[in-house]
Amino acid sequence: MMRIAVLDDDASLGDYVSQVLGEAGHSCHTYQEGRRLVNELRRESFDLLILDWEVPDMSGLEVLTWVRSSIQDPLPVLFLTCRSEETDIVAGLAAGADDYMVKPMRRAELMARVFALLRRAYPQQQGVQQLTVEPFEFDATAKTIVRDGVTLEVTHKEFDLAFLLFRNLGRLLSRSHIQEAVWGHDHDLPSRTMDTHISRVRSKLQLRAEQGFRLTPVYSFGYRLEQVGADV
Q: What rounded mean pLDDT belongs to the chain?
């Protein structure tokens, strides 16, 4: 599952894009105003943005410019817009868009372009069932974590959380992003549940700087797992 933000002032089209990508297993969030999406990006993380150009109060191009100047982690962006002039396409790509589609949208083409963008941006997440980040070995089928040949005792949720963090090593993930990936759309999840699981994963995997990893909270946003030098 990838977390995708869709910006389009046409609510029906935004919902249709979300439906198409939702059927492919992704979690989509729709926005009709550019400034609202920017405000959301200040406290949320997404794997992909799909932007219309002409939306109220802040254009898709302005949103893209803000993203490229304000978000440190690489974030793939696809323009989906009625603007079909060559100058518009060039301007969108020059501003930092990774791909450009002209409406009307074709369902199969959208899915293919989204898949290609996600595959390039997150090669470590495409159907990965096994992952090795020394000294850890993850097996998503068995939900096991092996460290230096020793299998660690973790619950399924602790595995899912650790696997998510290591697949996004060095990347800042919002609390909502983590919740959707590990617990799904459970709006009644107590806030302490995530923090407790984070604490257990940190303890069981010994995610400390002297061991080569740092798992840190980012106030009012989420968590980031980083690989650091053993002398840090």
A: 93
User: Between helices 175-183 and 191-204, what is the axis angle to 10°?
Assistant: 80
- In the block, tokens 């390039």 appear at 120
Give one DSSP letter per residue of 121-156, joined into a string.
Answer: H-GGGSS--EEEETTEEEETTTTEEEETTEE----H
pLDDT in tens, 142-165: 999 999 999 999 999 999 999 999
Residues 202/196, Cβ–Cβ less than 8 Å: no
Strand partners, 101: 80
Q: Global pTM?
A: 0.89
Half-sphere exposure (Cβ direction) of 50: Cα atoms closer than 13 Å: 33
